[in-house]
């Protein structure tokens, strides 16, 4: 009887521990609104709501293409974007500038425009 109780307790503890650490890459996407800049050395996103800056990983394979179609004369021109994605913590293996401690993994580009709404993004 005691052994069964101990085994049941162990199974419950393992089940609870397994539920709390889900992979954020598979978490439901969140809509982020902000300013995106692209150039040879930078893919950055500044969240309009928080002002935080993030490195961008484009899993949608459309952001760079859509940015290029805006026909800027020089790199790093900011654009307003709305994207679906997830925020993950950057690791040393990501080899990012220390300016970026997190990464926005873009799953879907919703909107991209040269017009940056001043009421939303200062």
Automatic annotation (TrEMBL):
- InterPro entries found in the cross-reference section: NlpE_C, NlpE_C_sf
Q: Which Pfam families match?
A: NlpE_C
* Residue ranges of every copy of the NlpE C-terminal OB domain listed in the record: 29-114
Designated name of the protein:
NlpE C-terminal OB domain-containing protein
This protein's species is Mucilaginibacter paludis DSM 18603
What taxonomic lineage is listed for the species of origin? Answer: Bacteria, Pseudomonadati, Bacteroidota, Sphingobacteriia, Sphingobacteriales
């Amino acid at each position: 009887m005691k052994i069964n109780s101990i085994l049941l307790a162990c199974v419950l503890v393992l089940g609870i521990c397994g539920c709390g650490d889900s992979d954020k890459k598979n978490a439901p996407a969140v809509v982020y609104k902000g300013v995106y800049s692209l150039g040879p050395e930078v893919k950055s996103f500044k969240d309009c709501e928080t002002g935080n800056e993030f490195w961008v990983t484009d899993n949608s394979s459309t952001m760079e293409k859509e940015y290029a179609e805006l026909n800027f004369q020089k790199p790093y021109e900011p654009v307003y974007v709305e994207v679906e994605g997830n925020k993950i913590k950057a690791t040393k293996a990501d080899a990012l500038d220390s300016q970026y401690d997190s990464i926005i993994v873009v799953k879907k580009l919703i909107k991209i425009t040269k017009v940056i709404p001043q009421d939303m993004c200062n």
